[in-house]
User: Which sequence fits this backbone?
């Protein structure tokens, strides 16, 4: 289930928290079984034979040789969440991360594409009743635009309280612009709409390139149906514009597109469909 890609001198490893079939209806309400079944290119990786979408929640470790960067930190254990299947999890995520070669103490950078619940959870871990930074030797990079938007919103108060504010209080957070250069091989690209400060992550090394999408594309079905917007988008019109612009830039290029919620095999290349829209060749 975990995967590894090599982009020039950079290794990107996927560490899965959970992969689910048929649980996407609440996030992509237009992607009904009947609507999806006709797009057979998604079968069997991203859709089952009945038209149920398959999605993943995972972190991506970007290892440049000099830097060890975790992109998005999933849901996390012990968190009290509104979605029952996400609440009070007890997963093997940290053990799986270590098995991939990355004990939590070895991570030097944590990067959140945005501050939704399933992208910040493992920022912290519960120790003796207290939320402590999971990655004590890392700088946590949080978009300044993103933080300003969520800081005073009561709808996100619980998530911020257990997964964001503790690392701020620990002095580990750097608020960064949407085009922040993390290092020579890694930088942020603004992809707003899902949230105001949402970013994707670009990796470039040795003449090879990859893009980690974040949630500007939740599922590959949104490549064919760019008009299928997420119910969690703060600005669906902007999200649609961002998605179409991004896909037009990526289509028929050698850029490896790695979906933050794409099920196994998770990464591929954007191709144009004769019938309109795009698809992901894996």
Assistant:
């Amino acid at each position: 289930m975990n995967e590894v890609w090599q982009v020039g001198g950079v290794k990107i490893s996927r560490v899965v928290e959970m992969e689910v079939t048929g649980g996407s209806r609440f996030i992509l309400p237009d992607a009904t079984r009947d609507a999806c079944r006709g797009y057979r290119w998604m079968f069997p990786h991203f859709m089952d034979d009945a038209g149920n979408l398959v999605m993943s929640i995972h972190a991506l470790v970007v290892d440049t040789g000099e830097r060890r960067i975790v992109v998005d930190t999933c849901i996390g254990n012990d968190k009290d969440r509104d979605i029952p299947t996400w609440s009070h999890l007890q997963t093997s995520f940290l053990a799986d991360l270590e098995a991939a070669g990355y004990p939590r103490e070895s991570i030097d950078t944590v990067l959140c594409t945005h501050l939704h619940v399933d992208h910040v959870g493992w920022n912290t871990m519960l120790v003796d009743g207290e939320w402590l930074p999971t990655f004590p030797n890392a700088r946590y990079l949080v978009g300044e635009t993103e933080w300003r938007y969520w800081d005073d919103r009561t709808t996100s108060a619980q998530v911020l309280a257990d997964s964001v504010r503790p690392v701020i209080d620990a002095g580990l957070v750097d608020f960064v612009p949407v085009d922040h250069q993390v290092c020579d091989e890694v930088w942020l690209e603004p992809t707003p709409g899902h949230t105001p400060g949402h970013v994707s992550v670009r990796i470039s090394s040795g003449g090879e390139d990859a893009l980690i999408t974040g949630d500007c594309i939740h599922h590959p079905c949104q490549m064919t149906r760019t008009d299928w917007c997420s119910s969690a988008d703060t600005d669906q019109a902007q999200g649609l514009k961002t998605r179409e612009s991004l896909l037009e830039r990526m289509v028929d290029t050698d850029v490896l597109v790695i979906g933050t919620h794409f099920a196994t095999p998770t990464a591929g290349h954007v191709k144009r469909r004769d019938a309109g829209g795009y698809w992901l060749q894996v």
